[in-house]
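for the recovery benchmark. C-alpha cells below, seq after
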C-alpha cells in the first residue's frame, strides 16, 4: 500500500506528538540499522544540495512519500531526505536536500516539521546551510558566514514557528534563543577552515537577518536591516533554528554569501539633488545565487565533512 499523502496525515493546526511519530516510524522502518538513528542533520540551502552527493550507503526518500512532509517548489531544491555515513568517522547523518520556505505558502509548522522528526530519530546536532545576501561591506561574494545570532522580522511581527499550543514533549513554552548558535560548534568551524587551509577571512561570524521573501529587499529595506544590526539577509534558516533549539538540538549555521545587497540610494531624478546621486548597483537574481552555490559547492562539502570529523565523540 502506498504511503498516505501529506494532505491526509498532516493538519497545520495539529501539533500532537502523533504526527511526528508517524513520520519518524515511516523512515526508521525503511532504513538499515546503521542509519536509523542519525546523530547529525544537515539542511542544504539554495544551490548546496551537492553536499549530500558524497555520503556512503545512501538511502533517499522523496518528500511527498513521507507522512507529514510537504514539497519544495524552489529551483535548486531537489526535495528529498538522504541518509548516509559521512566523513572519516562515518557518522550517520540525514540530509534535507532542499528546504521549505515561508514564501512558498507553507505554514511555519510545515516548514519546521522535519526538524522535530529529526529529533525523534535521535539527531543531536543540526547544521543549517543556505545562501544569503551581504548587507555588511565586510563580507564579499564567496565568503562563508558563521552565524552567531539572528534577527527574525517575521518573528517580531508574530510569525513564529512555536506559535500556538506548545508541544511539551519537545520543549518548554518559552525557550531562550540567546544561545541559539552553539559556541563550541562555531569554534570547530573555524578550526576546520584552518585545517583545510582556506584563505584567511573565508569564514566570518555574522548576524543573520530573516525576511519573508520572495521579493528581494528594496534599498531602503536593506539600509534598515543593516541599521538594526544585520550582516547578512536571507529567506530561510531561522524557523528551523528556533524549533531545533526548542527541541534541545545544538545548531551550527553556515551561510554562503551569494550576492551583495543593493544598499545605496541609487539615482535621483530631482535636478536640485544631482550632486547626491548614488551609485547604481546591480540587481540580484536567483540564478546568481545558484551559480555562486555551484562554484563554492566543493569547498562547502569539504568544510562540512571536516567539521563533522572534528566534533568530539560522545
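predicted aa per position
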Amino acid at each position: 500500500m502506498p504511503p498516505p499523502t501529506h494532505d491526509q496525515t498532516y493538519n497545520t493546526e495539529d501539533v500532537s506528538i502523533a504526527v511526528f511519530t508517524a513520520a519518524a516510524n515511516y523512515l526508521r522502518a525503511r532504513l538499515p540499522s546503521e542509519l536509523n538513528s542519525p546523530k547529525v542533520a544537515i539542511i542544504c540551502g539554495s544551490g548546496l544540495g551537492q553536499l549530500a552527493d558524497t555520503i556512503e550507503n545512501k538511502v533517499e526518500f522523496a518528500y511527498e512519500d513521507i507522512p507529514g512532509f510537504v514539497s519544495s517548489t524552489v529551483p535548486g531544491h531537489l526535495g528529498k531526505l538522504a541518509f548516509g555515513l559521512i566523513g572519516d568517522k562515518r557518522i550517520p547523518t540525514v540530509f534535507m536536500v532542499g528546504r521549505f520556505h515561508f514564501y512558498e505558502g507553507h505554514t511555519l509548522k510545515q516548514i519546521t516539521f522535519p526538524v522535530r522528526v529529526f529529533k525523534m530519530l535521535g539527531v543531536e546536532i543540526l547544521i543549517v546551510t543556505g545562501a544569503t545576501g551581504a548587507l555588511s561591506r565586510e563580507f564579499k561574494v564567496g565568503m562563508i558566514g558563521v552565524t552567531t545570532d539572528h534577527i527574525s522580522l517575521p518573528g517580531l511581527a508574530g510569525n513564529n514557528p512555536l506559535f500556538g499550543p506548545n508541544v511539551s514533549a519537545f520543549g518548554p513554552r518559552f525557550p531562550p534563543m540567546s544561545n541559539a548558535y552553539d559556541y563550541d560548534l562555531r569554534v570547530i568551524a573555524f578550526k576546520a577552515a584552518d585545517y583545510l587551509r582556506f584563505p584567511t577571512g573565508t569564514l566570518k561570524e555574522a548576524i543573520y537577518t530573516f525576511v519573508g521573501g520572495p521579493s528581494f529587499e528594496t534599498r531602503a529595506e536593506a539600509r534598515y536591516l543593516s541599521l538594526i544590526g544585520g550582516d547578512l539577509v536571507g529567506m530561510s534558516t531561522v524557523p528551523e533554528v528556533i524549533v531545533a533549539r526548542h527541541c534541545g538540538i545544538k545548531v551550527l549555521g553556515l551561510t554562503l554569501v551569494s550576492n551583495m545587497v543593493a544598499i545605496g540610494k541609487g539615482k535621483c531624478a530631482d535636478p536640485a539633488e544631482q550632486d547626491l546621486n548614488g551609485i547604481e548597483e546591480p540587481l540580484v537574481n536567483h540564478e546568481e545565487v545558484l551559480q555562486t552555490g555551484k562554484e563554492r559547492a566543493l569547498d562547502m562539502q569539504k568544510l562540512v565533512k571536516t567539521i563533522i570529523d572534528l566534533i568530539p565523540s560522545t
